Amino acid sequence: MTGSNHIIKSKVHILNPSFTKSEQKVVQILLQTRADVMYFFVTELASTAAIREATVLPFCRRLGCTGYQECQLPLLNVNTF
User: Fold this and answer.
1) pLDDT in tens, the chain (81 residues)
2) Beta carbons within 10 angstroms of residue 17's beta carbon
């Protein structure tokens, strides 16, 4: 899991300048609600970030995950971005 954390953290830093405004909102919500994100459904994350649900899956795929569930735990465990 530590390797996944490092990879996700690195990808967020590298891709940050190229994230869309909606993807940047996802990052902000993940940072603000890190302790709760493990329990968020895609609909809750999208609603909290004020974005469309359809934005979440492509965001996760850009980070190298196959879906939202695969993204949740590594993002939760990253201490700082």
Assistant:
1) 445 556 777 787 788 788 999 999 988 887 787 767 778 899 999 999 999 999 999 999 998 888 888 887 766 565 544
2) 7
Task: Return d(Cα 75, Cα 53) in angstroms, integer.
Answer: 18
Distance CA 75, CA 81 (A): 9
Under 8 Å between Cβ of 1 and 77: yes
Residue located via tokens 């201490």: 79
The DSSP-derived string for 2-45 is HHHHHHHHHHHHHHGGG--HHHHHHHHHHHHTHHHHTT--HHHH
CA 26 to chain centre: 6
